[in-house]
């Protein structure tokens, strides 16, 4: 790992004063490239206040998927004020956009998710369940932070490009409704990555890492099954009714029995979206929503076919009819080896943040509160490891960045802005996300992402190696086949009702950086707040 003071002594130059000839980048020595990179690290570090404000502001919005209106308006204004042009409403999604700055190639696109989690409202810096608004959504995964990583990195590199007359194009886009796996496959279908040379994605983590290859997590298709029967008086003439809810329950039972005979890597889970109106009316309509997850396209399709068969069987048994709607999809991810190996060197150059005693105290108190070992915060980088053996892959979560990874060389930068050993999609995952833990982790992530972006813009050999891996390894035998059907459309209706219920109250707690230094200060929270022994 590079030690900053040693590197500064070795180079012996004032990094922030450096300028470079654009034509010289291909022939830069290793020392000159280090000089440029240290200049970028310094420039990102100077934006620490901007990092904190952006991170806390988006945290305070706490919007759910497809309803990220405040978040998108806030981010696009920052980008427009800094010279980016914005295409709004891409793929027919009101909160989606594509921001573009620059001229010519290479074209590098940076993305990160922006949506929150239902019922995850939580006061930051408080190591026990204490909602800002009971029942309201919040950033229970930390999606308030990823666009901060990307935008601060992009603005820093943009300034460097202007100063040194470097050609290239930077694009920035949001992962709308990632928790519903609801949008990135539509971006792909509509051609938003056809002229992009590489994608840098970012995602919150409790560690600092990246990865390459396949086999980490599952892909999925998200399907809602709607059943239609006939209403009747549940007591007076139940024989005249045909219960759509019976069909939903029969389908659920059938799927649960079938689980015993499926691979360990499958993940099928569901919620009943509509179970009828009231007990004394036989439900004429009912709906159940499934995620069918597996490690590869053929097995995802096979699970989907099982779902359809179960729906058909439930329909026959209950004398109802049915239809289905795709609400989202995600291909299994495959990340680029050349870009990941380069990014890992940049991660090593930046290193882990230095945690304070207060940061560690918050982490340990929260870990104790939820019943896990109080280990505190991670201080060492994760290793860059080979992909897992596909035969031993027992599955896991999904992200629709997978679809994009099959269009263009892509990696995910995971930056250390949250606390280890949390359950995910939970109020506890919100606790650190507007505190110094997040601020330090996001700043470190922005430094590494700036270096990644710089390398892709100025190192032709890296770009050639990335595309060589993409063509000769990743896609040599495996080909992308969309899970989306031609008639499928983004499910932009999702979460409207929840946000309508809570938005007016949530607006009262939006961060005001002109009045308060941090969101913790605005909420009157002493950092850290822990239970007294």
TrEMBL record:
Which Gene3D superfamilies does the record match to this protein? 3.30.70.360, Zn peptidases
Which terms are listed as keywords in the entry? Answer: Signal
Any GO CC annotation of this UniProt entry: cytoplasm
Q: Which InterPro entries match?
A: Amidohydrolase, Bact_exopeptidase_dim_dom, Peptidase_M20/M20A_hydrolases, Peptidase_M20_dimer
Record's signal peptide: 1-24
**Domain of life where this protein originates:** Bacteria
Protein name, as recorded = Aminobenzoyl-glutamate utilization protein B
- Name its species: Aliiglaciecola lipolytica E3
């Amino acid at each position: 790992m590079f030690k900053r003071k040693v590197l500064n002594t070795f180079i012996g130059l004032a990094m922030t004063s450096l300028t470079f000839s654009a034509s010289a980048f291909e022939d830069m020595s290793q020392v000159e490239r280090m000089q440029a990179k240290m200049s970028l690290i310094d420039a990102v570090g100077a934006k620490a206040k901007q990092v904190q404000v952006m991170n806390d502001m988006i945290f305070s919005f706490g919007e759910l998927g497809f309803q990220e209106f405040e978040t998108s308006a806030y981010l696009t204004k920052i980008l427009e004020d800094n010279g980016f042009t914005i295409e709004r409403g891409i793929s027919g999604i009101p909160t989606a956009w594509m921001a573009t700055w620059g001229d010519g190639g290479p074209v590098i696109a940076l993305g990160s998710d922006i949506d929150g989690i239902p019922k995850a409202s939580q006061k930051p810096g408080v190591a026990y369940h204490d909602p800002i608004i009971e029942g309201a959504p919040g950033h229970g995964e930390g999606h308030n932070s990823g666009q901060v990583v990307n935008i601060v990195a992009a603005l820093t590199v943009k300034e460097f490009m202007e100063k040194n007359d470097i050609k290239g194009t930077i694009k920035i886009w949001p992962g709308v409704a990632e928790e519903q796996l609801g949008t990135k496959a539509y971006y792909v279908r509509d051609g938003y990555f056809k002229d992009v040379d590489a994608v840098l994605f970012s995602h919150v983590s409790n560690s600092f890492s990246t990865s390459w290859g396949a086999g980490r997590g599952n892909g999925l298709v998200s399907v809602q099954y709607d059943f239609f029967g006939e209403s009747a008086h549940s007591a007076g003439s139940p024989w005249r009714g045909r219960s759509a809810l019976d069909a939903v329950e029969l389908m659920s039972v059938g799927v649960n029995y079938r689980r015993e005979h499926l691979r360990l890597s499958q993940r099928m889970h569901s919620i009943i979206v509509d179970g009828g109106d009231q007990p004394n009316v036989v439900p004429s309509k009912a709906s159940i929503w499934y995620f069918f997850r597996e490690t590869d396209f053929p097995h995802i399709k096979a699970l989907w076919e099982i779902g359809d068969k179960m729906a058909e069987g439930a329909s026959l048994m209950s004398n109802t009819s049915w239809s289905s709607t795709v609400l989202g999809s995600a291909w299994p991810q495959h990340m680029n080896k050349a870009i990941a190996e380069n990014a890992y060197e940049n991660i090593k150059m930046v290193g882990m943040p230095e945690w304070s005693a207060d940061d560690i105290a918050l982490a340990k108190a929260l870990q104790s509160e939820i019943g896990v070992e109080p280990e505190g915060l991670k201080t060492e980088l994760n290793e860059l490891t080979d992909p897992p053996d596909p035969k031993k892959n027992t599955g896991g979560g999904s992200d629709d960045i997978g679809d994009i990874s099959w269009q263009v060389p892509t990696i995910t930068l995971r930056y250390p802005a949250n606390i280890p050993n949390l359950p995910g999609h939970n109020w506890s995952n919100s606790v650190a996300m507007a505190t110094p833990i997040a601020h330090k982790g996001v700043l470190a992530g922005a430094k590494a992402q700036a270096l990644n972006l710089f390398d892709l813009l100025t190192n032709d050999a890296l770009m050639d190696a990335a595309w060589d891996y993409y063509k000769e390894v990743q896609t040599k035998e495996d080909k992308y086949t969309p899970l989306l059907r031609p008639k499928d459309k983004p499910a932009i209706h999702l979460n409207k009702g929840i946000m309508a219920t809570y938005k007016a109250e949530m607006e009262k707690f939006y961060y005001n950086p002109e009045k308060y230094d941090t969101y913790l200060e605005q909420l009157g929270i002493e950092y850290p707040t822990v239970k007294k022994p």
